[in-house]
Amino acid sequence: MSKGDNKREFLFDKFSENLLFLKENGILPKEIEIDKGDYICPICLDKFTKEHLNQELENPLSLEDAPPKSLGGSQIVLTCERCNNGMGRDIDWHLTERLKEMDFHNRISGAEMKGKFTLNVTVNGKIVVEDNGVTKAHLSEKNNNPEVLEKYINIIKGKGTKEPYWEPNPTRVDSKKLQIALIKNAYLLMFERFGYAFLFDKEYDRIREQLLKPEADIYPLDCWFHGPFPEERIGVPFITEKNIESIFALFKLSTKLSKRIFGVVLPLSGSKIERTISELKNRFEKQKEFSVEMMSFTDNYLTSLESVNLLIKYMNKRK
User: Fold this and answer.
1) How many CB atoms lie under 10 A from the CB of residue 316?
2) Which of 293, 315, 314, 303 minimizes the C-alpha distance to 233?
3) Could you read off the pLDDT tens digit of each residue along the chain, which spans 319 residues?
4) What are the start-end ranges of the E strands in the chain?
5) Rounded to a whole number, what is the distance in angstroms from the first to the last CA of the chain?
6) Which has fewest Cβ within 10 Å: 25, 212, 229, 287?
7) From CA 278, how far away is CA 175, in angstroms rounded?
8) Whose CA is closest to 266, among 237, 231, 241, 292?
9) How far is CA 65 from CA 3, 75, 188, in A?
10) What torsion, rounded to 10 degrees, do the Cα atoms 206, 207, 213, 219 define?
11) What pLDDT was estimated at residue 244?
């Protein structure tokens, strides 16, 4: 077996056992019917068996990075290939692209932005941020007509030449899909931490539907916040303060040049997530730093009945 095969089998057993454990202890909703050895994709909720670890099948279970590997994430759960590939192709890259753009706008050394230079003629190139925030133009031999490029260089070399006009390429980032990517990462991190214990709550139906239908308006997309957050809080803590009780998934996104911490608000059973988001936004608008009552749950919520019961009890108190 390859390293990937071993990782897929490990994750399958981990969450399949959690699913059976919840059923045997009467915690799984009655409408969720499973047999021993079943695994449910946390995004589409389709059922799979161990046979679906075979990567030659039409829609096998695949390793899912959360956050994306390109942003420092790791393989923490399994999703079906249809969900995995579809979101990677249509959702995740918007997040990666935007963070690279932020590196450039923040003048981080090594960041670059592609665009066009115009001085009588137009050529393709890029601006690269060097040490101390100084920027330098680089022309592309590969992406230019050789004659046009030579003409441009000769014009630049001329005495008294004006500065060329620089126009960055239009961003390809869809801001809506960028926000959905943040929600997806928070959702999968929550699943990795707590398993299926409250995954089937109707509040999470909205998130799953939003992930599967990015063009629709289903879940409030303004549920994320970008620091400053203390690194020691990274994880999936609960906000326990009255009227804003929620899950606040905190995770680090790392490009080759920078590291940033994002927080995404996820619902608890019966919570009005829009109210929670509104209250947090109001606080952030008033001050960049403020204290919120939070609690980090560090128990084993996949196989410990006592821990799961305490968690469910806490959530039921709020209904």
Assistant:
1) 10
2) 293
3) 788 889 999 999 999 999 999 999 999 999 999 999 999 999 999 999 999 999 999 999 999 999 999 999 999 999 999 999 988 778 999 999 999 999 999 999 999 999 999 999 999 999 999 988 889 999 988 999 999 999 999 998 886 668 899 999 999 999 999 999 999 999 999 999 999 998 998 889 999 999 999 999 999 999 999 877 888 889 999 888 888 889 999 999 999 999 999 999 999 876 678 888 888 888 877 776 667 787 887 789 999 999 998 888 877 766 5
4) 39-40, 47-48, 61-66, 74-80, 112-119, 121-129, 135-139, 165-168, 224-226, 238-239, 246-254, 259-266, 294-295
5) 47
6) 287
7) 20
8) 237
9) 15, 4, 9
10) 70
11) 86
Question: Tell me, what DSSP letter sits at residue 144?
Answer: S
- Sequence spans of domains, the chain: 3-98+174-316, 107-168
Q: Is the peptide bond before 67 cis (omega within 30 degrees of 0)?
A: yes
Q: Which two tokens stand for residue 280?
A: 């947090």
Instruction: Give yes or no for a contact between 196 and 188, defined as CB atoms under 8 angstroms apart.
Output: no
Cβ atoms of 130 and 144 closer than 8 Å: no
For residues 253 and 65, what is the distance between their CA atoms, to the nearest angstrom? 12
Amino acid letter, residue 3: K
Amino acid present at 247:
I
pTM beyond 0.85 = yes
**Is 119 in contact with 154 (CB distance < 8 Å)?**
no
Instruction: Return the amino acid letter for 26.
Output: G
